[in-house]
Amino acid sequence: MNNLKKVLFILIFLIKGVFSFSQIGGDNTYEFLNLTNSARVASLGGNQISIKDNDLNFVFHNPALLNAEMDKHIVLNYVNYFADINYYYVAYAQKFDSIGNFAFGIHHINYGDFQGANENGQKTKKFSSSEYAFNLFYSREILDSLFTVGVNLKPIYSVLENYMSYGISSDFGITYNNIKKLFTASFVLKNIGTQIKPYYSSHYEDLPFDIQIGITKKLEKAPFRFSFLFHHLNKLDMTYKNPNEKNKDNFFEEKTEKDEEIWWEDSGDKILRHFILGIEFLPSDNFFISAGYNYQRREELKLETKSGMTGISFGFGVRISRFQFSYARAIYHVAGASNHFSFSVNFNKKRL
Which of 46, 64, 33, 38 lies closest to 206 in space, CA to CA? Predict the structure, then answer.
């Protein structure tokens, strides 16, 4: 009973943040915090918070996934994004038996160089823009190691031309892991924080706050693992409202049977926009193939005339002794995709 009270207390403490911070939208600052660094995570749909193994990259999405098996691991990620944008992530983990697990990471995005111009079209000086987030992770197992709680403190620094801003953000996570049943479930509050110095005067902007729940199940007699993520639970309606479309609502008209059918279709669409599916094929400990489906990405970026593979992602990973390499390709649009490269080293491994 005492253990149950401890778990309930932790959940209540985390959920309190739901009522204390602004919600998401298209007007948040520091949106780069939501970019996917890891090739493996990118291949699983762009976000996964409930896969518990020794991959340090998952900690970026859920600090409660940090565990002792990641001791002395280092990860390096590079993403070839769109429009000559590149971003990087590096992290290192260290365990302390009497305290818990710690990790440190740096997330950097470089938007490239730009040619400045005035209101008359005359060229001025060139400028560049970039952003940084420093990740300080801590986790600890509780309740006979069935649960792990974790936190990520993120100081943020951003320079966009001659506008500078810095802020502070944090993530909170709790993970339940049942080894016998090959089942994991996680709850995460992401990007809780504020701007300390805004870009302009006293105009403070909201951070991209997010509430997520994830579950993962590995099949007992087959080399497959399925992950389900429900994101942005703090905002039920994730659909985009096009201001150019004529308002179809009419106060003086009664709803027809057709209108009711459309309402139900819209409800299903609104629910699925919170959903990401990830599948892994794990024939051995040294090789994996993975794929993911991001419904929201597909609905927002597909063409009306041609959907293609928008919203689909896939990749693979190979481990040789203490080294692991992963690659993923995430398809955002019929015209382009992002390429993700990840490299990790286990310095705790004694022999090659």
Answer: 33
The predicted model gives 85-109 an average pLDDT of 95
- CA-wise closest residue to 63 among 78, 72, 75, 52: 52
- 20, pLDDT greater than 50: no
**Contact predicate 293/276, CB 8 Å:** yes
Confidence class for position 313, pLDDT limits 50, 70, 90: very high
- For the chain, the structural domain boundaries read 2-114+127-210
* Separation CA 156–CA 178 (nearest Å): 35
Report how far residue 294's alpha carbon sits from residue 284's, in angstroms, rounded to the nearest whole number. Answer: 26
